[in-house]
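Problem 12. The chain below contains 153 residues. Write out its predicted structure in token notation.
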Amino acid sequence: VHHVIQSFKQLPSSYEACDDEFFEGLLKVEELPSYHDLGHPHQIPDLDYALLCGPSLSLGADAMRTTYCILYFLKFFKDPFDLLKVCIRLGGDVDSLASVALGIVGGRFGLNIGEEEKGGLPVWLVDCLEGVDYMQDLANKLSKWYIHYHKQE
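Solution.
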């Protein structure tokens, strides 16, 4: 959250990357305590929960609130499975929340699939996904391209 706030502060004043409400919300999200210290997300005080999810106390299809939740959870997640569980426990539009948050973590750190002792995602979660073989094939091609491309530099 801190890095996002700093990035917005460094933009030229003529560049309107976000409105005041969004930026003020980011500042408030930055101050929230770790969800690990609070138990599970439904134990977050109502005012903080309302900041993350909106007045309905359930995450709707709202880009601003989804961004708040993603940044908040990414700030404190311990491992990919922890992140997935906290996204699901939040309630509401959790499929979008979990896919974006895990996509960021997976792209940066990997999801450690099958390495549950390291907080990775259990194999059974991935095996039941539609298109796993296709995604694995694309990942392998991307990996080979990346390695080949960087050997040329």
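Discussion. The chain is about 60% helix and 0% strand. Students who got a different answer should revisit the alignment rule from Section 12.3.
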